Amino acid sequence: MSGETERPPALTLPAAARDLIRSGPLAHLATVNPDGSPHLTGVWVGLDGDDLVFASMYAWRKTKNLWREPRCAVSVEGTGMHASGLREYLVLRGTVTVEEGSAFALLRRLASVYMGPGTEFPPDELSTLGGYVMRMRVERVGGVGPWTGAPPGLPEDAARG
């Protein structure tokens, strides 16, 4: 044993989760600050295979947090209502790899989804910056919606208090 924590296997995202992500809702990324406090920020997300990808042109807090502690969670609000009466939402947990470069191209691709076709964002002046692409290996899928395969119920540990 190398002393490393064993990671759960990567998952194949359910089709309904993929469809929600491709529709362009703002996602919320949760990371851990150096002092242990939570950090939450909105991010544009896309897919590369079964990896969730997002980017930053600069090393903002989210990037620095993920360099130090790559485990994170992402939530995405759905547009539908579940049969239970709850609004659907998707929660992904996993591990991120931060890659230098290619952020401009990814953000341009995502801008067409989030801001509209033909949108040129970020501005061309930033095209020479490498930026950072964050690639999340999804290890757990949850929330309320067709991606969970079951109606919402009590959490397994709810009875324990």
From TrEMBL:
- GO-annotated cellular components: cytosol
Q: Which domain of life is it from?
A: Bacteria
In terms of InterPro entries, this protein maps to: F420-binding_dom_put, F420H2_bilvrd_red/Heme_oxyg, Pyridox_Oxase_N, Split_barrel_FMN-bd
Q: Which residues form the Pyridoxamine 5'-phosphate oxidase N-terminal domain?
A: 14-116
Example GO molecular function term? oxidoreductase activity, acting on the CH-CH group of donors
Pfam families (alphabetical) = PNPOx_N
Keywords tagged on the record: Oxidoreductase
Report the NCBIfam families cross-referenced here. Answer: Rv1155_F420 (TIGR03618)
Q: What protein is this chain from?
A: PPOX class probable F420-dependent enzyme
User: What is the species of this protein?
Assistant: Catenuloplanes niger
